[in-house]
Amino acid sequence: MLDGQIHDIGKVGETISQVKEQLEADLGRELTEVCIAAAGRVLRTVTTYVEHSFESDREITQEDVYSLCTMGVEKAYEEFQNSNTDTDMKFYCVGYTAMRYYMNGYQMGNLEGHKAKNIAVDLIATFLPDDVVDGLYKAVELAGLHVANLTLEPIAAIQVAIPEKFRMLNMALVDVGAGTSDISITKEEPSQPMA
C-alpha cells in the first residue's frame, strides 16, 4: 500500500487472508463477506440538488426517498462526467450522503411517512478512480471474500466514533494514516468526507 492505494494486490490479499483466518479461528465461524473502506486520496465529490413532484399530496414511502436519492446520484454522476474532461481516468461512485431533505419547500429531517406533493434532497456523491476500487475488490477476492459494502474511510470512522445524535454539533474527525489523512466534518447532521 502507498498513499491509500494498493500497489501489490497479491501481498495485500495475503494479509487479508491472514486476518480472515485469525478472525474465523477466534469467532469459530467462516467469514464470506466483508465491508471495506477506501482512502480518499484521489476522492472527487459533487454536491447536487434534485427534486420530484407528485400529482397530488401523498404519503412518502421509503421507496420514494430511495428513488429521490438515486435521481440525485445519477445527476451528480452526469455533472461529474461533464466537469471531468481533463483526464481519461474512469471513476466509480462509491457513496453518497443526503445532506438535507425538503418537503414542499421546507427542510425536513426524514421524509418517510409525511404527506407531500414535492420532495427534494441536497446530496453529496463521492467518486474514486476505477483502478483504486478494482484493486480493493481484487485483494478481497484473493482472500476468498465477497465485498458486501464499500464506503470511504472518513465516513466509516465517523459512523463508528460519533453517535448520530451528536452529529449536529459541527464536529471534525481527523484520521491521520500512514499515507493519507482524511477529515470528516459533521455540519447540520450528515458527515462530509474530505481528502
TrEMBL record:
Q: Which keywords does UniProt give here?
A: Cell cycle, Cell division
Which InterPro entries does this UniProt record tie to the protein? ATPase_NBD, FtsA/MreB, SHS2_FtsA
According to its UniProt entry, one GO biological process term is: cell division
| Residue ranges occupied by any SHS2 domain in the UniProt entry | 1-161
Q: Which PANTHER family match?
A: CELL DIVISION PROTEIN FTSA-RELATED (PTHR32432), ETHANOLAMINE UTILIZATION PROTEIN EUTJ (PTHR32432:SF3)
- The entry's protein name is Cell division protein FtsA
Q: Which organism is it from?
A: human gut metagenome
